[in-house]
Amino acid sequence: MDIKQIQDLIRFVSKSGVNEVSLEQKDFKITIKTNQEPTVVHATIPAPASAPAAATAAPALAAAPAPAAVADTSHYLTIKSPMIGTFYRSASPDKPLFVNVGDEVESGTVVCIIEAMKLFNEIESEVSGRIVKILVDNASPVEYDQPLFLVEPI
């Protein structure tokens, strides 16, 4: 896959409204993720013509679940990524996590590491409070200014 095809794929994903697309070929794998709201797509595959009528009846779709109540996060402070890179919650797999939900942090406390171009950058909290939610999975790519943690001021 060349760079033009990758750029076309990125444009397609951004216009389509999907959150994530993974493509794997013989010696190449790419995953493209967006920060858009999830789009739910339902598809019905027609049954073969020789199947009995009872088998061709589509099962009734369960009522779409009501969207989860969106928690009011306006009173929380956000620790955001200062760079593009890969988010890590600990210095190495055998080391303890920098912070967990419920931990109290102060300004200057190291909360994670972001690897960018083979450099491991310690990210320090600019706020004081209690970690309420960790918004990024370990070893996931992050973008500039992407929220990483929600912090409840104390």
Quick rundown:
This protein is mainly beta. It contains two helices and ten strands, in the order αββαββββββββ.
Keywords:
four-stranded antiparallel β-sheet; 12% helix; OB fold (Dihydrolipoamide Acetyltransferase, E2P); 154 residues; 2 helices; 10 strands; globular; mainly beta; single chain
List the topology elements.
Blueprint lengths: L2 H14 L3 E6 L2 E6 L19 H4 L20 E4 L4 E4 L15 E2 L4 E7 L2 E6 L4 E6 L5 E3 L4 E6 L2
Antiparallel strand pairs: 1-2, 3-10, 4-6, 4-9, 5-8, 6-7, 8-10
Structure overview:
This protein has 154 residues and is mostly beta strands. Among the domains are: 3-33, no CATH class; 77-152, RNA polymerase II/Efflux pump adaptor protein, barrel-sandwich hybrid domain (OB fold (Dihydrolipoamide Acetyltransferase, E2P)), CATH 2.40.50.100. Helices cover 12% and strands 32% of the residues. It has helices spanning 3-16, 53-56, and strands at residues 20-25, 28-33, 77-80, 85-88, 104-105, 110-116, 119-124, 129-134, 140-142, 147-152. The strands form 3 sheets. Strands 3-10-8-5 form a 4-stranded antiparallel beta sheet, with no helix packed on it. Strand 1 (20-25) and strand 2 form a beta hairpin. The longest helix is centred in the first third of the chain and has 14 residues, at 3-16. The termini are far apart. Mean pLDDT is 78; it is low at 39-45 and 51-66.
